[in-house]
């Protein structure tokens, strides 16, 4: 009897220490608050998409590193997003403007006119992360953070959100390898450009070869998805 009582007490303590798993209903809700100050640097840590094509292509492309530097503009709630994309130690940079309010984000043009559909900021248990649900032509769920690495529990929560949507297994990016000194493609002399592109092409080809079975399965899933969508 004493052993039984001890077991009950231990199980009770364990149940108190383990929070109940979040439901899809909770994970799919918009943030309860307006969200963090968006200005500053953010890192793309993981991405899921409506189908596997997007994540598979990013995997083949050597899992590029995305860094976002966001600044506020003169117009209210309008921001500039300076995006740095690093592939094989070389960087591409571009800028996009967006409008953000009430947990919704729109890309805007030079006249601050909204473009496309709104992206939603969803619930996240990560204190310095943002989960963005994009509903444009490529539907995607994106995890960004001010940190280069999140905890295993925070990543599992994001993976659960992707499963709630029935979307692809998230592609995880290695933002910890982001470099301040990556070489911009715009600064590469023309005589070096061909050699660099050949090296990247060789690595991408090797990656694609090693992923042949994954790519085949993804293409089958994609065409099934297209067939079901149009039928």
Automatic annotation (TrEMBL):
Gene3D superfamilies: 2.40.128.20. InterPro entries: Calycin. One of its GO terms (cellular component) is extracellular region. Keywords: Glycoprotein, Secreted, Signal. It is found in: Secreted. Residues 1-19 form the signal peptide. This is Uncharacterized protein LOC114435596. It comes from Parambassis ranga. The gene is LOC114435596.
